[in-house]
Protein 1
Amino acid sequence: IAFKNPLIDFDEILFIDNPYPEGAEWPHEARHRNGMMAVPGGRLLVLKGLHPSGELRKLMPEKPGSFWRPDLSFDATRVLASFKPHDEKSFHLYEINIDGTGLKQLTFGDYDDLDPIYLPDGHIMFSTSRCNTYIRCMPYTYAYVLARCDPDGDNIYLVSHGNEPDWLPTLLNDGRVIYTRWEYTDKALWRIQSLWTVNQDGTNTSVFWGNQSVWPDMLVEPRPIPNSNRVMFTGAAHHNWFDGSIGIVDPNKGFNFPEGLTKITADVPWPECGEPPLDPIESLSYHTAGAYDAYKSPFPLGEEDFLVSARRDGKYRLYLMDVHGNRELIYQGAHHIWHAMPVRPRQKPLTQSDQVAWPGTGADRQDPQPGIFFSPNIYEGVPDLPQGMVKHLRVIQMDSKTATTWTRDISPNWYSGPVVSILQADGVKRILGTVPVQPDGSVYFQVPAGKALHFQLLDEQYRALQTMRSFSGLMPGERRSCVGCHESHSRAPINRPYTMTQQTPAELTPPPWGTETISYTKFVQPVLDRYCAECHQGEGEAKEKLDLTFRPGTGVFNEPYASLVMGGIAGAMLVEDFDQRDPESYKTFRPLQHLSYTSQLIDVAMDEEHLGRKMDPVDLRRLIAWVDANCVYRGEEDLRSIPDPDFAGIEELPIRPLCMNAPIIERP
């Protein structure tokens, strides 16, 4: 009866039959897709006949290897595959005709290229390790970002701005690309693996659902439901690979838990994050026959019906299923059946116009054009920030983590290698500059393209009144507007005249020290030595109360850094001390609550009576900047003083780990 459903208007299905990855910590969201985890034995298959005895056609491989998610061309004649041959170290992109002819390799090299999709204009978007970055909290794991290339694999551009992985891009019905983004900009690293969208050219990166949510832990493998704004996904775990429970999000009903979220597979809880206070179910008539402990890679056929891989007795099989729990077995493979999709022509989504001034690749590459940000009123959405208090907007860049020691220090909240902060698995930061905020609250300024940027609102003394706990970025030539600090995704900018709209966008004014990266030894200790030594160093009478002598401390962190930060004197956000299961821990904080504006250290530095003199304005700005960067310890120079790692087996890795000689990768 199920197969008489009019939505089943196909008799062939494309999927992979693949063994599990293997290796140290392979069942982790960040590691299982690394080429070094791949196990040969995979097959790219087409099943004709939607039943276990259907006719099987093998498209690939000719030699043993492993696969991840394929994609089908809009006319259903060609297949994009991500394949790692058993005698190579990395996944590459391939294209083959649906009848198994015309195999050609599209990408080459030492980096992983994964999970490609056809774009409506003929380009290909995929995830790749060509960024040469490492997970900040897992420095022996390659990160993936989104990239775009020509149909033949040439002219590869990195279109993501961040450091942590972007996974599994998929086209939405309206032509946008939806994907999973993991980020922890001044947040705890555990829970925020949410859904984002980007245009086909890499512009207009926007949150889709869940960037301030705990449940589900991770939303991955998104697929749009036909003729709907809703998206089906796999709710997975931070410390596991991409399986779990199947759910739906509807951004028309909200952008964070519990608004807009329903669970389909009520028999399996959201993994790792625990039971939520509310757990809305898509169908109250849901039932299951037998014990299934995990689901993955759903493909919606309509509002209620979908293809899905379900695990039972340790093996993933392919089913036709509906939201009520009815299911019919389609196929059981030699290993596990994943990433199934119908073989049939599909409507091509809208081709979006290309807004990017592409800089060229290889010898033809030019310096990328800047992008332009505009906000009509930075006070919008921040009612408790008095109008006129904000004088500057600061732009902070977090550098991509291309340096690694290939080892991790996990005590207490560092997890990194090399460690940058005692507070969290942080990244190297630099202040690119500030721009003035106009009396009406508007800002209009240009920024370098391809960088991970976050913004802070400053008072006249350059203290942060409000800080952004996420990151943004622009493509070359992109122009982007936003509404205040808590943009409502369902609301357009207010329609009124603005001070800046008829002017040339402002260039960033660098701080007095330029754009060097922030570190404790450059920004803080010299200031303490100049102004605090008499009382807090040597034979000073206040040394016993607070010793500000530079001396060995905890691990790589010298004192008094550890005491200033962990003792609460500096005013840092102790992000890893927040409750991981409290959604409030991941939201944008109210203004005037953290960092330099409430810092005891900065209060003392501004107290002429306490110091006995007035602190030099540049020294004060350095202290303020360090606190507002959340008290990082190391900068780029510190990392580049660490020798490159060397250990048994290093030559077997696809990308050689480097620290002192870590590369600088161009984006886009």
Protein 2
Amino acid sequence: MANNSRASAAALAEQIAAQYSELPQVTAVSLGGSLATKQSGADSDIDLYVYTVEDIPLDARQAIAQSNASQYEVDNQFWESGDEWIDQTTGIHVDVMFRSTHWIEEQINRILLQHLASVGYSTCFWHNVSTSKILFDRVSWYAQLQVAAKRPYPPQLQQAIIAKNFPILRNTLSSYLYQINSSMRRKDTVSLNHRIAALLASYFDILFALNELPHPGEKRLLHLATTQCKLQPNNMVEHINHLLLASTEDEDVPDRVNDLVDSLEELLRSYGA
């Protein structure tokens, strides 16, 4: 995204945040995604997070969306509760997600205090909270949440993520490699692609944990891993590209999985993880 486009998007985000700030249910509004981390491109959208103490009436949400949009959707429930629209002036895609303050506090505590790992993407909420830019903060609640989130990577969390995600790469009967082999025997290309995607999700979860970095989410993962992770498996980019190429040709996928996991396992062993 060019500097002038980035400035336009930032100004639009501030304008929309000001509209939400007038609602009594709203405690804070933050700007996340590539705009907040200064990695936005030409097609980047605006990711806003609206934190509330109680639900905002749908008519109030619709009024804000409608006032800005050439095309809008309200109360999407596909992932988090959210509204989306295309800004009528700039053409920028605006994505607004609504979260309760209590819910996000629980997610951060789950990660940083309880050290609970997930299968892939374990620390994404931590990264999101830490890197988002505050646009509105009624009682400094979000600033305090960011202070709590900006702490050293807990060793117990690192261990939990590796322990949960590494065995399912290939070491169990429910592993991704086992399922990939089954998919290939069935000639089930949809299942094959699904399992490869899941394997890569766990792979990157392990890699970011090993490097004591909160997981940055699903976009630009290979670029972020190569530029931010000091500890990298040998030939990581080559192995990932070979795996993805093999998946389209339905050839040598298990071998490419083993190449990828072998180098990761070697890295983990060398650092005693």
